[in-house]
């Protein structure tokens, strides 16, 4: 996640602040949220022509994923990843992962969880914790699995770096969140031994070693390319591990099966990775065969785009996957992944990776509305720093979207007012950003995979 968009795009998912020392202002926060029948999946599935038509087969999706990896700077084919890297290459990866903190000697305007300015000494200590001097010669990575939902950080620290004293929910050190059973490659470890620098399928950054289990390639591949697996189709899914604890999965998570056939009591037998002294132990768990999971990916259909998107409706906005939730781009990525489509993590990279797109440059407002209506259901609408999913036209011909939003602005007699939303909602394209630009006029493209 890139902190530089926080002030530049305050009308969308990168403009997230909550009052820290007083309650959140009670603005008319839901006035852009549509809450009538148009915020139900049945409304849209009834309005969608050929809604159950399969748009892409899984073989076509595999080809699509390969094409998007070639266009993206962040997507990686882990199965083909070379774990042998030079020290110089890994060093550059670590520096690149720092994003806006790269080359900085001070944290800038950064505050901790108590609202106190982060000392420069702390920032320098965190940077030194990258242990760059420990990179020498050739590096051989380690295969590992994520054992619990955990954060991936730009630098090796769990400390918050809020860039406004009133901001509780935007942590500029947060890269993304990783779900259990995610395969990663460990390329380096922090000086304090608490973090590992990892390459995941869609991002790289620092992960707590306590959430990782090292294993061999054979067991690791079971999670990279499982033969038989469950896909989490609910917005969130808790799985009990041996009756001792529960682990949280989010939509699109893949859980390898230990047995291809249904077990007694209508359950599936699956593997979950557990860390014991840093090493993998696989535990078999029983998962009820309900509507929160699906064997294999869901068919890629317009109606499944609709149904999957609506499962998050009303959920809290979670910057970088914080608060066990989704921001704008992890929301769209989770929807697409439930059908097997691997999108990049961030909105700007998603836009670049889209195989098909409609451009809005040079169009008037009326032309933009006409262009949006050409997009298929499930298309992604992009504006700087934000992404939304297109639902289609309502009965009055208004194009509507669903998205994980943080805020919008209103203007009264020249006075600007910011309204916080921080949730997944259905809206039209009229809401404004901090420069009084309606969303329709800020769109850069509509991207989609099939039509």
Automatic annotation (TrEMBL):
SUPFAM superfamilies: Cysteine proteinases. GO terms for biological process: proteolysis. GO terms for molecular function: cysteine-type peptidase activity. Residues 1-28 form the signal peptide. Residues 299-432 form the NlpC/P60 domain. PROSITE patterns: NLPC_P60. Keywords: Hydrolase, Protease, Signal, Thiol protease. Belongs to the peptidase C40 family. This is NlpC/P60 domain-containing protein.
